[in-house]
Amino acid sequence: xxxxxxxxRCLPKVDELLQQDEIxxxxxxxGRERLVDIIRETINDLRSNILLKEMVVESDTSEERIIETxxxxxxKTNEIQIRKVINGSGVVLHTNLGRAPLxxxxxxxxxxxxxxxxxxxxxxxxxxxxxxxxxxxxxxLTLTGAEDAIVVNNNAGAVLLALSAVAKGKEVIISRGELxxxxxxxxxPEVMEQSGAKLVEVGATNKSYLxxxxxxxxxxxxALLKVHRSNFKLVGFTHETTSEDLVALANQKQIPVMNDLxxxxxxxxxxxGYPYEPTVKDVVNSGCDIITFSxxxxxxxxxxxxxxxxxxxxxxxxxxxxxxxxxxDKLTLSALEATLKQYIKPEKAxxxxxxxxxxxxxxxxxxxxxxxxIRQLPESIDRLKASIKRTTSQVGGGSYPGHEMNxxxxxxxxxxxxxxxxxxxxxxxxxxxxGRLSEGVYLLDVRTIIEKEMIIISERLQxxxxxxxxx
Length: 471
Ligand SMILES: *Cc1c(COP(=O)(O)O)cnc(C)c1O
What we know:
Elements: H1 2-10, H2 14-18, H3 21-24, H4 32-51, H5 63-78, E1 85-87, E2 91-93, H6 104-114, E3 122-123, E4 128-129, H7 134-144, E5 148-152, H8 155-167, E6 171-175, E7 181-182, E8 186-187, H9 188-195, E9 198-202, H10 210-216, E10 221-227, H11 243-253, E11 257-262, H12 280-285, E12 290-294, E13 305-309, H13 311-318, H14 321-325, H15 330-341, H16 346-352, H17 354-360, H18 363-376, E14 386-396, E15 399-412, H19 416-428, E16 432-434, E17 436-438, E18 441-445, H20 453-470
Parallel strand pairs: 1-16, 2-14, 6-9, 6-10, 10-11, 11-12
Antiparallel strand pairs: 3-4, 5-13, 7-8, 12-13, 14-15, 15-18, 17-18
Helix pairs in contact: 4-5, 6-15, 7-15, 8-9, 16-17, 19-20
């Protein structure tokens, strides 16, 4: 205890520290109040550590060391916390890494629209007030074949809004096989409860038939709902009712069919080796009345929820108060418009929209990319023994579950300590690089790495080698 006491006695006072040149210099970066908070917090942390008999040695309480800590904290306070990450995981739509990266055209348009004012809500032809939704409406209609469209903040919001506007206080019928949870916080039954609609489950987990829906319809039924399973597959002894059959039934009863499609696929990818997935157009053609999907999954744009469908229903949705609460901002709209514009020429979309480009890249493309990566690596990192290895990458984001793309990774080998240290160094550095640790090696799947990022990774690897040689 005596030792703790003497350590405590050694701790400098806030005022004393504030008189140090090294500390006063920090006032150029940060306000005085915040600086005092950081100094106090640093000393308090040390004090509690000493009292808890944590590993505190005399050198930790030296003024020099304390000033260092304060400087680091101030520097961190000034850094932007959300920052660039290089994705070497091979998961194209990585939810934790911000889903779809934007293409260069969308980036340009965001820059242009954000640096000054825009025509967000003015009709430049008439000079009168306009609607923010009008700018991309026609484009969405052209690409999907729908009668009308509206865009909101995200797809979960789109589903909540559509259900609130169409089915509040009434019943909505859904198959038990489609009561999915997507990404941990979006559960169909819970969203339904929030909207005020009453869930009526029909069928069994693996099978539901048209007659199940038919038997459940009452005068209180507001809609039939179909939800794309997104992140899981139903295999084996199964039966699912098609959108067409649901539409035929709903038409007789004069109620709408809602279809929560999720991914927002606009181009059929079967010729690129993908299993069949309904495109938005396919679902519109099936006659569904209200269709919802995300802007930043397979569509490859920004976070947004797009609702397309029959004019009658979109008008009802558009005039609901929640639309205002879920409205999209100008950055989202401009990036989405720029992304959608590329779909007018599908061959262009495939090449220019990063998500699609990464998804259709072939195994040979990936081998070439991996070889190019290895070629760029400097000799100074020989110690990491880089080589090329076959691997598989995934689409992610709840799209094409179970589908794997053959790919290549650049693999780094070394002692277990080196590999663990390398992974940590790359992940926590700037820019951060996210790779995979697998069977004692470090892997970077080249599929999700953008060409110009390879040189950055090389530099980070060199930094790691330099640092570990010093130790
Ligand atoms: C992803 C997904 C959602 C949620 O969309 P967000 O854009 O993440 O809000 C809802 N429904 C389905 C079927 C999905 O796949």
